[in-house]
Amino acid sequence: MHCLLRTRLFRVCLIGIVTVLNTAAWGQSSVESIAAVAPKVVKIFGAGGGAKLHAYGSGFLVSANGHIVTVSSHILDGDTVNVVLHDGRRFPGKVLGVEPPLDMAVLKIEAEGLPHFDLAEAVAAAPGTRVLAFSNAFKVATGDEQVTVMHGVISAKTTLAARRGAFESPYTGQVYVVDAVTNNSGAAGGVLTTWDGRLLGMIGKELRNAQTNTWLNYVMPISELKETITQIVTGDFSSKKRPDDEESPGKPRPRRYESLDFGIITIPDVLNRTPAYIDRILPGSQAEKVGLRPNDLILFVGDNLVQSCKLLKEDLGRLEANDTVKLVVRRGDTLVSVELVAPRKAE
């Protein structure tokens, strides 16, 4: 009996010692990984300041000569983009290329000998893998301060299904769904790594799940981005823009109507992709009668996703007199649909 008891106690003690050793090993591994990865993550400051438009974000170095991968966003639309390194050094950034379907951009700063991720060494991971997420969430770092670090687990790998119209969501490929609150203001463009610091993917923008309407914590795998990143860095790249992004030569677009014809005044179109927020509603207008309000974000004109004030202008400009047009706007956390009729104009 005593022998059996001693054996059981020995097993319990052995399990306890192994658990403590494993925990210590994980802790030591994460500390070393953070020290190695953090210098490869940069803080990006650019355009913003409008309604819900933060002027800061994240990125990560992919070459010793200053090539930086980040998300494509309004931050890059200003005259200057400022990049701040881990040690506080500041550089102007030049946008080398943007790929809208991947929601990704590559910047370049004039610097050498920088710590960086080798894309050839990026890995894939399965559900259950422990991970670390690095970013400038909530602008916690403006100089040489440490970026945020979160630890979590990959809970799934699936196709991104963001709620239609909630935010710009051009990317619809594979993503890692992460059991950690990774996608916050300023976090987009940050990185997800394994517990030992190997590159897994890029943190995306804030989006909602199309089915559950809950906020997503997701990361785009490097395998989805690597080819395009390499093409932009080497100069062998041609963007796959949607037709509406550029004027078609020889085919002038009609602009018969504009938002003012319906009583809608949007915020100033100061960026290349200024979101179509309503600034004011004219008294007695159609817009007022159907219940549109200031600060509503216009998401859809008919079936067309409105990604900017420019595209809103294009879509309304195609209307003919007496056309009925459906607008979908985001008001707080809800979607509101209204219908307007293009008024007949005097010849």
Order of helices and strands: HEEEEEEEEEEEEHEEHEEHEE
Structural class, by secondary structure, is: alpha+beta
Helix fraction, binned, reads 10-25%
Q: How much of the sequence is in beta strands?
A: 25-35%
Span of the ends, CA to CA: 105 Å
* Unreliable sequence segments: 1-26, 164-168, 242-253
CATH topology of the largest domain: Thrombin, subunit H
Oligomeric state of this protein? single chain
Shape: elongated
Give the count of structural domains: 2
| Biggest pleated-sheet summary | 6 strands, antiparallel, barrel
Describe the structure concisely for a colleague.
The protein has 347 residues and is an alpha+beta fold.
Describe this structure in words.
By secondary structure, the protein is α+β, with helices and mostly antiparallel strands. It folds into two domains: 35-234, Thrombin, subunit H, CATH 2.40.10; 249-341, Roll (Pdz3 Domain). The chain is built from four helices and 18 strands. It has a six-stranded antiparallel beta barrel with strand order 1-2-3-6-5-4. It has a six-stranded antiparallel barrel with strand order 7-8-9-12-11-10. The longest helix has 36 residues, at 2-37. It is elongated and about 70 Å long. The model is unreliable at 1-26, 164-168 and 242-253 (pLDDT under 50).
